[in-house]
Amino acid sequence: MSTMLTRSVRTLSKQLSTPVRLYSTGGSAGSIGSTRTDGSSDNFVKRERAQEDYFIIQREKEELQKLKEQLKSHEDKVEKLKKEIDGFSSKK
């Protein structure tokens, strides 16, 4: 009888147990790169953001330089074509 009671108690306790969360929902306040609960950020995040901003600025400078070179090339072509047009109109 006692074994039967023990089994029913075990079965009942398994059925009544609630799932427990065994993981954290966010990083701890000291984790590298994590957002702090008070809204501040650590030096790692600031340094990463600064490096990314620097990289983007450098890329934009390179692209701007290429565009300026292309513009200069097109302006030279336009000037050359204007001279050709002037040459044709002066021959008439």
pLDDT under 50 segments (min length 5)?
none
- Number of β-strand runs: 0
How would you sum up the major sheet? none
Helical amount:
55-70%
End-to-end separation: 124 Å
- From the spread of the alpha carbons, the general shape counts as rod-shaped
Helix count, DSSP H or I runs of 4 or more residues: 2
Q: What integer is the average pLDDT?
A: 78
The helix/strand order is: HH
Fraction of residues in β-strands = under 5%
Derived structural class = mainly alpha
Radius of gyration: 37 Å
List the defining traits of the structure above.
70% helix; mainly alpha; 92 residues
Can you give a write-up of this model?
Helix content is 70%, strand content 0%. With 92 residues, the chain is mainly alpha-helical. The chain has a domain at 43-91. The model has no long low-confidence stretch (mean pLDDT 78). Residues 23-43 are annotated as: Disordered. This is ATPase inhibitor, mitochondrial. Inhibits the enzyme activity of ATPase. Its main location: mitochondrion.
Quick rundown:
The protein is mainly alpha-helical. The protein is built from two helices and no strands.
